[in-house]
Amino acid sequence: MASAARCSLKRAGGAGILVPMLNLSPSGEAAPLVPGTTPVGQVVEALLASGRATLQVAGPGGEVAGTFDLVDYLRRKGPVEAPHEPVQLHLQDPLDEAPAQPPLADGRLWRELLHALLSSPDKPMAALVDPDERILFSNTQLRQAFPDAFDGRPLRIRDLLPGHPQRRDGDASPISFWYVQNRERCFMVLKTRACADGVGALVLFELTAQLAQGHKAALDEVDLLKRVLDISVEGLQVVDARGVITLVNESFLQIHKLSREESEGHLVTDVIENTRMHIVARTGVPEVDEFQTISGHAYVVSRIPIFKDGKCLGAVGKIVFQDFREIQRLAEKVKRLQMELEALRKSQGKQHRDTRFTFDDIVAVSDSSVLAKERAMMGAPTSSTILLLGESGVGKEVYAQAIHNLSPRHDRPFVRVNCSAITETLIESELFGYAEGAFTGAKKGGRAGKFEQANTGTIFLDEIGDMPLEAQAKLLRVLQEREIDRVGGEGTMPVDIRVIAATNQDLWALVEQKKFRRDLFFRLNVIPIVIPPLRERPADIPALGTLFWADLQKTHGVAAKVLTEKAKRLLAEYTWPGNIRELRNVLERTFTIVRDDRISEDQVRMILLGVGSTGGRLNEQDESTLDRTVEKAERRAIGFALARTNNNKAQAAKLLGISRPLLYRKMSQYDIS
User: Fold this and answer.
1) Where's the Sigma-54 factor interaction domain (predicted)?
2) Nearest 5°: CA angle at 56, between 50 and 59?
3) I need a labelling partner for 63 at 20 to 30 A (CA). Which of 119, 314, 356, 504 fits?
4) Which residue, 108, 543, 548, is CA-closest to 366?
């Protein structure tokens, strides 16, 4: 008996009953004999861990009493309701040898899986299930994890895990993976489909709360993205920097009559004829609204590069039009309009282009600034309205010019309008122009407004939150109808413009305060881009400082003047309430005021002290008292003098025209060290 079955004794619970702990041989060896008094539940667990389906059971005298066949037992008995019954009650007729294992296609898949999992030191929660997802058998780990569920009643997966997990794979998959959250516990669920033997396996891996939350969020985001791409984008494809297709949607597969296996993972040049996706992915230069012939049909396609940290990671392509007759009709209309516009442009004279910034001028190192730059680059080739949000000095106009220069309108007018700088009485005539005789002093022949000047190009509405409500109503009509009315004029004039708006205010708060039109807000908020303040992206400060300093060296022709490492570190640690504009201002003051070639930390600190919270300017809206105004002026003068003399008190006093004792008193008074 001992040679036929290896076993040990374990005390069950606290009852003092000794039961054998089976240690079966791997499935490749001869089936061992086990005592007939062994609990059937323990025999089943041992079979699952060993990868077996059968074993032979010994009678009282050590003879072979019969064979326990797990699959046959589950077919006849259904769920194991009495796991403590002796195995000798559930035997087949005695056989000379164990029946042969069924082939893999007939159901060994679940046994192979459980053998691999349950034979490891860390045993997961496992169960056997039938095609109706009834739990036929559960191991000790599963019962201990869900003690309230196993009360003797028939149990299904949905009873064990309320809110049955939604499959990520199809029902026909041999093995499926799910994620499910049961109250405050999170599980990764693995299930093998019931095969020819009518039995499948269920395995649960409990996840930590943080891992589960992140996993669920990632799955939901990917699932949502796939659904959006399948529904909203015609013929979408994504390639990496090598030109290998990494993602396609259903529309792409239908247009090209391909399967996903024939497209994803292959070079785009091997899948699509006349493609240029690999070129865009390599060069980073977008191609918008280009013609492409595919299988004898003409399409209009756009190919947009994907950037991260200034590096092109690949490209995304989409089909804009499939109906070639519609394309021809639109092309003829565009050609006619272009001829009309060209004639109008010649009559008005050549437009002056006043944009000089591109995306190469935008420094983005921090994650938040990289995200803003990428979003702007993705929106630039479109004609959609863009709303730039951010504090004063973060570079909203730089973004606006970069977007314009990357758009198809890059060679057309770019007109900037500061809505806060135009008085309420003049804003309508400034934006929409006026007809001859519209009011006293009106120019003969009338005057074109900003929208008319920006026709075929881009209009940048800066500080849009300060626009009066009456002008907002007219702006809304321009955005809806794409036509303007001159003040005092008759009839309307069509305009073709791309609108970029910017504000440092909370527009939604203004909407709730009835200071900004709700319908205009939604018209402007098509592609919102939040430009983070400099204090939230400290990694950008060294790169911006290097860029500005090199520009100052070039402008002033002084290449020898440099900042020490401690001075750079001081600049990086400063909070910059005035953002990029203040950083540029401080660097320019430092460059021009300090005469030394090596500028120290103390000299930069004095410049920062002199600039203060007003950026070195007196604010006409500042309600400070006379004493406070004098204090600011004296602080600024002392800071600049100390910086210029490299903290030499005697020279600083001489430069200020005061005695050295008076300088010391002022420094002590204002806590200047």
Assistant:
1) 362-592
2) 135
3) 119
4) 543
Q: Please, are residues 237 and 252 in contact by the beta-carbon 8 Å criterion?
A: yes
Say whether 211 sits in a helix, a strand or coil: helix
As a whole number of angstroms, the distance between CA 50 and CA 217 comes to: 37
* CA 341/CA 213 separation, integer angstroms: 56
What tokens does 558 get?
Answer: 């002084």
CA pair distance 514, 523, nearest whole angstrom: 16
**Cα–Cα–Cα angle for 568, 573, 576, nearest 5°?**
100
484 burial class (0-12, 13-18, 19+ CB within 10 angstroms)?
Answer: buried
Give the span between the Cα atoms of 151 and 153, in whole angstroms. 6
| CA–CA separation, 382 and 189 (whole Å) | 43
Q: Is residue 405 situated within a structural domain?
A: yes
Task: Please tell me the distance from the alpha carbon of residue 334 to that of residue 332, in angstroms, as a whole number.
Answer: 5
Question: Do residues 656 and 649 make contact, with C-beta atoms less than 8 angstroms apart?
Answer: no
Q: How far apart are CA 52 and CA 22, in angstroms?
A: 13
Distances (CA, A) of 123 to 116, 118, 369, 644: 10, 5, 46, 73
Rounded distance between C-alpha atoms, residue 385 and residue 499, angstroms = 5
What value does the CA radius of gyration of the chain take, rounded to a whole number of Å?
38
User: From CA 568, how far away is CA 546, in angstroms rounded?
Assistant: 9
Do the Cβ atoms of 5 and 35 come closer than 8 Å?
A: yes
What is the three-class DSSP state of 489?
coil
**Sequence letter at residue 166:** Q
Tokens of 417: 């309008």
Q: Is 68 helix (H, G, I), strand (E, B) or coil?
A: strand
Please tell me the distance from the alpha carbon of residue 410 to that of residue 488, in angstroms, as a whole number.
Answer: 32
For residue 415, the one-letter residue type is V
Beta strand pairing call for 125-129 and 200-207: antiparallel
Range of the domain at 419: 359-532
Q: Is residue 116 part of a domain?
A: no
Same domain, 471 and 556: no
Residue 128 backbone class (left: φ over 0; alpha: ψ -120 to 50; beta: rest): beta
Give the model confidence (pLDDT) of 235-277 as tens digits. Answer: 888 999 899 998 888 888 888 888 888 888 889 998 888 889 9
Claim to verify: residue 559 and residue 640 sit in the same structural domain: yes
Residue length, the chain?
673
In this structure, which amino acid lies at residue 403? Answer: I
Show Cβ contacts of residue 115 under 8 Å, excluding neighbours closer than 6 positions: 27, 48, 49, 50, 51
Q: What is the DSSP letter of 407?
A: S
User: Are 524 and 424 within one domain?
Assistant: yes
Question: Are residues 444 and 510 both part of a single domain?
Answer: yes
Per the model's pLDDT, the better-predicted residue between 99 and 41 turns out to be 41
Query: Would you state the pLDDT for residue 625?
Result: 66
For residues 293 and 272, what is the distance between their CA atoms, to the nearest angstrom? 10
Average pLDDT of span 416-421: 85
pLDDT of residue 614: 40
192-233: pLDDT as tens digits: 777 666 788 888 877 765 555 555 666 666 666 666 666 556
Q: Is residue 599 part of a domain?
A: yes
Tokens found for residue 400: 């606006």
Q: How far apart are the first and last CA of the chain?
A: 93
Q: Which two tokens stand for residue 240?
A: 């990496």
